[in-house]
Amino acid sequence: MEENLDLRYYAKVHSVESFGTVDGPGIRFILFLQGCNLQCKYCHNRDTWDLNQGQYRSLEDILTQVKKYKNYIMPNGGVTVTGGEPLLQVKFLIEFFKELKKEKIHTCIDTSGMVSITDDIKQLLELTDLVLLDIKHINDEKCKQLVGFSNKLELEFAKYLSDNGIKMWLRQVIIPGYTDKREDILELKKFIKTLKTVEKVELLPYHSMGKYKWEKLNIKYELENVKDASQDDINKVKELLGI
Q: pLDDT (tens digit, 9 = 90+) per residue, 187-211?
């Protein structure tokens, strides 16, 4: 049955959160889509990677659920789609965001931006009010070591958002010994200055709370000996970035 689904109207869903407060402005309905193309060593949602997991849900079903919470999320909140990597299901998101726009609901995508900018991606971004863009690492070689891929696509994605007037919040996970080096933070600062539509820079402290998900899947957690980021770690990076 799954092979015959029209993927414009069905999404592979991991979970939902009806009262999110940290993924975009206001109170938000958070849709976690299944599937990710990266291999972030610090991922706290390791169970979202496999596109064969999760369950298919229809556009109609998801919209019905969103509308139940419309009074709570309006007018200052909205819907955020995250994952996994939500842009792997771009055709569904186009139809989903078209419907949200009809309801005048604020649309937000939380993404790594590690995708090619296709016509589908462009169409989706025209329907997107805000992008939470996770910069994995500003140094290309270190990015490859940390998440398995070059940062080329995500930096191009940031430039596309900037050039096309699409608002973004940049996010960087601060991992002691990995993403907090002075030279890298200064390079990140330089890159941010080239972008015109950055509304906010969010520093997310690394934590190991998702480690149990790796263990449950019987997969080695590679950052076993890395300490959780402290407020002091965050403050040092903030100072370097001037935020």
A: 999 999 999 999 999 999 999 989 9
Q: Tokens in use for 189?
A: 């600062």
Phi–psi pair at 151, nearest 5 degrees: -90, 5
Please give the full DSSP string across the chain, using - where no structure is assigned: -GGG--TTSEEEEEEEEEEE-SSSSSSEEEEEES--S---TT-S-GGGS-TTSSEEEEHHHHHHHHHHTHHHHTTT-EEEEESS-GGGGHHHHHHHHHHHHHTT-EEEEEE---S---HHHHHHHHT-SEEEEE---SSHHHHHHHHSS-SHHHHHHHHHHHHTT--EEEEEEE-TTTT--HHHHHHHHHHHTT-S-EEEEEEEEP--TTHHHHHHTT---TTTTPPPPPHHHHHHHHHHHT-
Residues 6+ apart with CB under 8 A from 115: 37, 85, 87, 88, 121, 153, 157
Residue among 227, 239, 177, 167 nearest 203 (CA): 239
CA-CA distance, 66 to 106, in Å (whole number)? 12
pTM score of the predicted model:
0.96
d(CA 149, CA 184): 17
Write the pLDDT tens digit of every residue in 24-77.
999 999 999 999 999 999 999 999 999 899 999 999 999 999 999 999 999 999
Domains of the chain: 2-241 (3.20.20.70)
Task: Please give the average per-residue pLDDT across 84-105, as a whole number.
Answer: 98
